[in-house]
Design goal:
The chain contains 6 helices and 12 strands. The protein has a 7-stranded mixed beta sheet. It is α/β, with parallel strands linked by helices and 197 residues long.
């Protein structure tokens, strides 16, 4: 098989499908010609090329992960190198620390996050900025009850700041964003995660 053939092979992209903006990610994945997989059980993690942990309510998703036992399977897969992208609540779930809380969830990424850092639903906003590693063009960033990263270790690379707050970062096989690219028609960030990250 040549490199070009491999590059054109559709990938199996999992979306943790417990709660949150699942369908939006599924639709974007399909639009790029890849195969979306709704992840609800440990078996659904088999044979994935990438995994997205979507926005939603992090405490609710964390509780479901624990009650189903999926938390441990998910943590094991990511620890062994499965590439993962956490958007909004997904960022919180991946973080080793959550401000003003004693419990974390997957506890894999060396960041501390502040939940609902930008206020409640009424304080949601959209802004435009360039993220050099992702695109030479301005991207539309949608923030909904968004967290941001308040502390990082030297293992973490900052990808984007808004008003001096870290809203996108990466560490090894983990990518996180405070914002929701899936809520825009632009698939640039998803392409970055699938093809470049």
């Amino acid at each position: 098989m040549t490199y070009i053939q491999m590059a054109n092979t559709p990938l199996h992209i999992g979306v943790l499908a417990l709660q949150g903006s699942i369908d939006e990610h599924i639709n974007h994945i399909s639009s790029l010609g890849h195969i979306p997989v709704k992840v609800r059980t440990s078996n659904d993690l088999d044979n994935l090329d990438r995994l997205i942990i979507p926005g939603g309510e992090s405490t609710t998703i964390g509780n479901i992960l624990r009650s189903t036992g999926l938390l441990y399977s998910l943590k094991d897969k990511i620890s062994k190198g499965l590439k993962v992208w956490g958007t909004c609540a997904g960022m919180i779930l991946l973080a080793k620390e959550i401000e003003n809380e004693t419990i974390s969830h997957l506890s894999l990424m060396d960041i501390k996050v502040k939940r609902n850092a930008y206020g409640n639903q009424l304080d949601s906003f959209i802004t435009y900025t360039k993220i050099n590693e992702v695109s030479p063009n301005n991207l539309e960033l949608v923030f909904i009850r968004a967290p941001y990263i308040s502390e990082i270790s030297d293992k973490v690379t900052i990808l984007c700041k808004i008003d001096e707050n870290i809203v996108a970062a990466k560490e090894n096989n983990m990518l996180v964003t405070s914002f929701h690219p899936e809520l825009t028609p632009d698939t640039t960030f998803l392409k970055y995660f699938i093809e470049t990250f």
